[in-house]
Amino acid sequence: MTVTKAVSSLDASKLEVLPLDSPKPVPTPDDSSISALKTTTDRMITVSWTAAEGWASPQLVPYGPLSLMPTASALQYATECFEGMKLFRGHDGRLRLFRPLYNCQRMLSSASRISLPQFEPDELLKLIRRLCAMEAPKWLPRDRTGSALYIRPTMVGTDSSLGFKVPEEAQLCIFMLYWPSPSMVTDPTQSVSRRGMRLLTSSEAAVRSWPGGTGLAKIGGNYGPTLFEHNKAKARGYDQVLWLYGPDRRITEAGSTNFFILWRTPAGELELTTPPLDNEGLILAGNTRQTILELFRTSFASSASSPLEPCNVLERRITMSDIECAVGEGLVLGAFAVGTAAWIQEVEEIGHDGREIRINISKAPHVAYIREKLAGIMLGDVENDWVEIVEEAAI
Amino acid sequence: MTVTKAVSSLDASKLEVLPLDSPKPVPTPDDSSISALKTTTDRMITVSWTAAEGWASPQLVPYGPLSLMPTASALQYATECFEGMKLFRGHDGRLRLFRPLYNCQRMLSSASRISLPQFEPDELLKLIRRLCAMEAPKWLPRDRTGSALYIRPTMVGTDSSLGFKVPEEAQLCIFMLYWPSPSMVTDPTQSVSRRGMRLLTSSEAAVRSWPGGTGLAKIGGNYGPTLFEHNKAKARGYDQVLWLYGPDRRITEAGSTNFFILWRTPAGELELTTPPLDNEGLILAGNTRQTILELFRTSFASSASSPLEPCNVLERRITMSDIECAVGEGLVLGAFAVGTAAWIQEVEEIGHDGREIRINISKAPHVAYIREKLAGIMLGDVENDWVEIVEEAAI
């Protein structure tokens, strides 16, 4: 008879709080250090995992370096995945997470794809809530209503065997930091820079994701290889790459965000379109993407209930020639890129094959309407069950 | 007038040798710890780089963990690349590297692709030689002729900004470890396991590399995402995945190695074929791959000079139906996978679409002939300018 020892599941209730010896000062919201994107809070949660024992007790520890052997699986074979979330200080002074289970479930899906260990998404969420509760009173104080902290759950393969194999050791690490405006939602309705984004389409020699690949997972290997094209776009004065796929040059993502276009059909109807999450798995299923789709669908469904002109919502392929034709015919009312860190950013120009395609900004009031509505939900002005209140620890 | 400060280049002559306090014991060649692929030598070389200052002085330090912020570019965005090389203890007791500049140049190419800093490949090679010279006297002693140490130069983005950007800090790290047989060349002519490898073709839903991607670079992001399919193959009793691409199911790589097939044309001629390094960039340009091509071309060119039946050498696409047809007609004389770590391993079976395709092993003497010839070069039995002698430090 074989006796199999049960390995331990991820269990947030086992969290051990370690002492914090050297707390850091909180920067003012306009502190220039924030833009370096290194300003984390005092503490992080780490949890070790081994194939033999499962998940160890989570620990709340001072934020600091991880110690990894040069042979570590994450450093050699990119066994790593992460999530991006925000903790909002609402106008009522309370802390809120926005659809956080969506991100925790996606983290599990990314971990599975990159051969990192499984866990119960709700336990991850409990750990995130604990970290928020402990860190927010100091780092997102009650008088900073309307602002947010960025949360980055990360998992890496720490197995120090150089062999090419599924890691037998891993570490989960959850930390928080300031994210500079425009995405820091001091006032989300004002968080879009005055000019819109300028996007440069990817060259045919640079493909971000592909059928059978990993475009739908939030893993490190989707990002590093795109820096080369990103840097070329930056050097030419663009903000992000608009990633295309296939001979028909269809749009997948804009930078690390999801892309939307608002246009009129030839029949004159208003339509919001975003590329679909089809079987090819080219596109990350963004939390903000899903939310925008749902808000447009519920807000502008029919002329009877819609506060603005009704708008159809479609998930379907968009090619660059679709966009060029529609712009030529004056049918495009706006385009925007959305993501947790990036928020909702309008696009004013797309560079493509040596041509500059100008996109109208805010020609229809729908985008501003949805942005305000979503900010109102995130900041607690409107009741909505997408939002979860975080009860904070006494400071 | 703008004064631009020149940043420092990688300079092996600046190597600083730090003290080694706790040397480790050398395992015996049959020590079971070697198979865990964690048995490194006492020391490694590390070099820090910043965008502002360039490369710092290289340091020979005790082998140990790297300290990386959880935000580090390599852990979040997989800005990382590596190389695999071997140091041989020849039958004459001298140390040899095999075409090492090839790997150093490929490391530069991989670093460029993943937006890590540039360097002079020859300086990397000088550092590798220094590490070998310092470590081999103890770890690859003179009486272990015919054996080898595996060398893993690694570069990671250490920039602790969470922003998505080209890393402004990086670290180069060169370390060595034992690699177990069959790839440890105790006697390379004997290093193939008695049975051949069993390969399972990748499913259409799992694609390792793609046109416009990174298949031709040795970066972490090419490896982690393939573990999922690799593990499925292992669970079914196969050794490696045979990675296919495209609707015609053409072969790209076998695991992390290059694939060769030896067969007869319908006209009866002997032909060695491997997939080409074409513009699509699906395949890593292996050092051993290149060497096998050159050895076959020079050894079996014409009936006048060839010691065995002459053999044509082709780099062209090979589809699974090519292989199935040729096997059905009895034209396949052998197939093998090659790489620095894997050496030359014959294939005895390919699982594909539920069918088991049996491949002859060693039906032509050419593979064994080339394996012996190459081992003779690596171990110094034959003079060859592919090999570089490493003069070692006094122990």
The residue ranges of chain A in which pLDDT falls below 50 over 5 or more consecutive positions are: 183-193
Name the assembly state.
homodimer
Give the helix/strand class of chain A: alpha+beta
Helix percentage range of chain A? 10-25%
Overall mean pLDDT score of chain A?
93
Total helices of chain A: the number is 7
* Radius of gyration of CA atoms of chain A, rounded to a whole number: 22 Å
What is the global morphology of chain A? globular
- Beginning-to-end CA distance, first to last residue of chain A: 54 Å
Most strands sheet of chain A: 10 strands, mixed
- What is the β-strand count of chain A? 20
* SSE succession of chain A: EEEEEHEEEHHEEEHEEEEHEHEEEHE
Please indicate the percent range of residues of chain A in DSSP E strands (runs of 2 or more): 25-35%
* Biggest interface, residues from each chain: A-B, 64 and 64 residues
GO cellular component, one term (chains A, B): mitochondrion
Keywords (chains A, B): Aminotransferase, Pyridoxal phosphate, Transferase
Organism (chains A, B): Clonostachys byssicola
Cofactor (chains A, B): pyridoxal 5'-phosphate
